[in-house]
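Feature request disguised as a bug: please show the residue count (204) next to Probable S-adenosylmethionine-dependent methyltransferase At5g38100 in the output. Example input:
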Amino acid sequence: MEEIKFSDPHSHAPYGKDGSGYYSTNVLACYDVNELAINLMLKAARSIPVDSNSSVFTLVDYGAADGGTSMPLVYACVKELRKKYGDELAIHVIYEDQPINDFKSLFMLLQGLIPGPPSFHVDFPNVFVTASGTSFYSQCVPNNSVTIGFSGTAFHWLRDKPCDITDATSYVASTVPEVKQKYREQAEKDWELILMKRAAELMP
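Example output, currently without the count:
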């Protein structure tokens, strides 16, 4: 399957001062989306067999932006894992986004250096955080290395624009059948690619 190579951001560029956490303080609806997924993530995390003495539990947030909107969800997961396995289980949280992403805000929030939600990185021991600046349309981490992954509000970004939209700001609202069909076909191809890349990354 052909992969697209990115030299420029293909969806959107971060806005607000770098390192300010501006994104997370101005997209409150994204908090709501992630909050709705907390119970689902906790159920999934509980169902995964883990050997706390020899395993690393790796959680990936795909399309993380500055990380603030998913911090309550990840906090809940880390808290649940600590409750079940104690402090012995190493937890690795990976934040993925575009190379131009505001990763400075991400680490400022996680270190508690700027205002934001409570930080699991501050409150729990044996938790490690890294970032990946590789598009989620590519493989972001090694094969069989991810315990669980999620994306809150990012997988709707398509790899390419299949055609212009002349009657609306989004293909969802377009009344032109050809436009809707082309975007539907693009979305199907992109979703398949996303799933193939995640399948390689996930542990068996």
